[in-house]
Amino acid sequence: RLVESGGGLVQPGGSLTLSCVASGFSIGSYDMSWFRQAPGKEREGISCISENDQNTYYADSVKGRFTISRGSVKNTVYLQMANQKPEDTAVYFCATHISDYLCSQLSKDVGAWGQGTQVTVSS
Length: 123
What we know:
Mean pLDDT: 93
Shape: globular
Strand content: over 45%
Number of helices: 1
């Protein structure tokens, strides 16, 4: 089971960090991804971190602004979001991947989804 948290309202240019906690399995055994879905739009992959933490991947829309990482102790993956824009408004989901290739492609072919957390960027 994956549970996201940390969403909320943030002003343009602001920062927010999302957390995804796994229960029942170790995220250390999986590539982990973040996706988002804006109203009326398809769910899109925005970032993934490989199982061994050696590779991270980002969509062009968030590259240079968002950072994905794993907690060193807790069974958690984070998404640090900086310099946020109104177009970042969406429900954010974490997910597991079973291969680094699918992770690198930010593929929606995932093993498990969380329930999502809302992020709203507005003044």
